[in-house]
Design brief:
Shape: globular
Radius of gyration: 24 Å
Number of helices: 18
Distance between the termini: 31 Å
Number of strands: 11
Helix content: 40-55%
CATH topology of the domain at 299-551: Butyryl-CoA Dehydrogenase, subunit A, domain 3
CATH class of the domain at 299-551: Mainly Alpha
CATH superfamily of the domain at 299-551: Butyryl-CoA Dehydrogenase, subunit A, domain 3
Structural class: alpha+beta
Oligomer: single chain
């Protein structure tokens, strides 16, 4: 029985009052003015109908219960059946399968490639933003499917057999050869025990079967320390060849129906993201197909990472939005000391500050999504802007999310710390996107790499910021200060986090000045560009219009 179906019996000891209740029956797209305006402005207004359908599901208590159950009852690994045969099976709770069906059926994984119209990646970002307000574990297989398409296209035979199945709006968990599947999922297995993010330190070996060439057959021997979604139909992986790290396609089932030599060792017991299986695996003479040229594996992985990093920037923004919506609901429906929480001056300051932070993450992530769309259409300026904004947005949104969610949880008091409440799951989930596809240091070094290897990225960044010049004197000064900071090449690696944070904050301020309300823009600029360093949430200046800022972020 789902929690929403449980009967509520009266109590004889006391009356239950002053509980905020669950936030249900809302449409997280149709009732989110900031999201609707942002998606329209960034060129994907046509996604409103499918986004509204997914937004309605996000506010449905049935799907909220599925999210809770899938995380309370995580995956279980069975290496052998009862007769002693090795089966390498990961079993999932039925709620996980239901969520996978909804996500893949809604095109969360595919719309960026299937829409074939302007703004496709931004439209797909809107669905991912909404999905991260339903359940985050399923966001891993949807994100991997989304980012895998460019790699699959490197070998025409792989593309012909797999792309349509990966992009299908169907979830088919049956362990069958690809020709018999209605839809397919893709996993990734890149890192190893000794290397972590240093992919060139990988030790897994790849031996060519017939000379070695793109699309050729190889045999892999080695291990992977993190393999996400190990029940996927195929995996993208890295292994060493004579020319260095190379990218390979590893199907779970061979064309003759037999299982590939892909062995799960165990599942990771993770802090969060518990509905999604993460595993340790071994290759032992495993069949694989080379994607691209030998020695180009890290480059191919980086190209995939640009899309997954976009997805993490979007995902963290979505997670923050859901935490904020829960917090606004609770504080507007809970009283303390004879007053509604949200009406008390200090709480209003905290809530307005959280609203600004959430909107900033949303503005930044979707501006990046539009750059991805424009770059795909051939704009060189957009490609340069995408190159610098991708690591900036990934670093900043993922870094801000944990502190943001912690503040939202605190607004709930003790109730927020209880596992039955969604805030506890969001709190455990929030740090993960900052680890996947590069920790903060790795990402900030990529910001420097973009500036140093492609100096024109700086010109593209400054051109984007210049669009907001003249809107606010404080912002003009901040843009000037950023330009000075970036022209200083001394000790840049030491200053990499400072540089990335400064780019992100000034970009967010510029987007507020151009895209948000005057009250929100003024408060953001006053608090982020002029405010005290290491400020806590709830430190907005006294003359800010807190009421209008909070009202703009409420689901209406």
């Amino acid at each position: 029985m789902l929690a929403t179906e449980a009967r509520i019996y009266p109590t004889t000891t006391h009356e239950v009052t002053n509980q905020s209740g669950a936030l249900t029956g809302v449409n997280l797209f149709g009732q989110d003015a900031i999201l609707r305006d942002t998606v329209l402005r960034e060129g994907a207004g046509w996604v409103a109908e499918p986004a509204a359908l997914l937004g309605e599901a996000a506010g449905d208590p049935v799907w909220q219960d599925h999210a809770h159950l899938a995380n309370q009852n995580g995956p279980c690994f069975k290496s052998h059946d009862r007769f002693g045969h090795r089966i390498d099976l990961v079993e999932f709770h039925p709620s996980y399968h239901a969520l996978m069906g909804l996500a893949f059926g809604s095109g969360v994984h595919s719309l960026g490639w299937t829409a074939n119209r302007p703004g496709a990646h931004t439209a797909r970002a809107a669905l991912s933003y909404l999905w991260n307000q339903i359940e985050n574990g399923v966001g891993c297989p949807t994100g991997m499917a989304y980012s895998a398409i460019p790699a699959l296209r490197l070998v025409p035979e792989i593309q012909a057999a797999w792309e349509a199945k990966v992009l299908a709006d169907a979830y088919d968990p049956r362990p069958l050869p690809i020709a018999e599947k209605a839809g397919a999922t893709i996993g990734m297995a890149l890192t190893e025990k000794q290397g972590g993010s240093d992919l060139r330190a990988n030790a897994t070996r790849a031996i060519p079967v017939n000379g070695g060439s793109p699309g050729g057959e190889y045999r892999l021997t080695g291990h992977k320390w993190f393999c996400s979604a190990p029940m996927s139909d195929a995996f993208l992986t890295l292994a060493q060849t004579e020319k260095g790290p190379s990218c390979f396609f590893v199907p779970r089932s061979l064309p003759d129906g037999t299982r590939n030599r892909f062995f799960i060792q165990r599942l990771k017991d993770k802090c969060g993201n518990r509905s999604n299986a993460s595993s340790e695996i071994e290759y032992d003479d495993t069949y694989a197909v080379l994607l691209g040229e030998e020695g180009r594996g890290v480059r191919i992985a980086i190209e995939m990472a640009h899309l997954t990093r976009l997805d993490f920037a979007i995902g963290s923004a979505g997670l923050m939005r859901w935490a904020l919506s829960l917090t606004l609901h609770h504080t507007h429906n809970r009283r303390a000391f004879q007053r509604v929480l949200a009406e008390q001056p200090l709480m209003r300051n905290v809530l307005a500050d959280l609203c600004l932070e959430s909107e900033a993450a949303t503005l930044l992530a979707f501006r990046l999504a539009r750059a991805v769309d424009e770059a795909a259409s051939g704009s060189e300026e957009a490609r340069l802007l995408e190159r610098i904004l991708t690591p900036v947005a990934k670093f900043w949104n993922c870094k801000r999310a944990p502190a943001f969610v912690a503040e939202c949880l605190e607004c709930h008091g003790g109730n927020g710390f209880i596992e039955e409440q969604p805030m506890a799951r969001l709190y455990r989930e929030a740090p993960l996107n900052g680890i996947w596809e590069g920790t903060g240091n790795v990402i900030c070094l990529d910001v420097l790499r973009a500036l140093q290897r492609e100096p024109d990225t700086l010109a593209a960044l400054l051109a984007e910021l210049s669009l907001a010049r003249g809107a606010d004197r404080r912002l003009d000064l901040a843009i000037d200060a950023l330009e000075t900071e970036l022209s200083d090449t001394r000790d840049q690696e030491h200053r990499a986090r400072q540089i990335a944070a400064q780019i992100a904050t000034v970009m967010e301020a510029a987007l507020f000045a151009r895209c948000s309300t005057p009250a929100a823009a003024d408060a953001f600029i006053a608090s982020r560009l002029e405010g005290l360093p290491n400020r806590a949430f709830g430190s907005l200046p006294r003359d800010c219009d807190l009421g209008s800022i909070v009202a703009r972020s409420r689901l209406t």
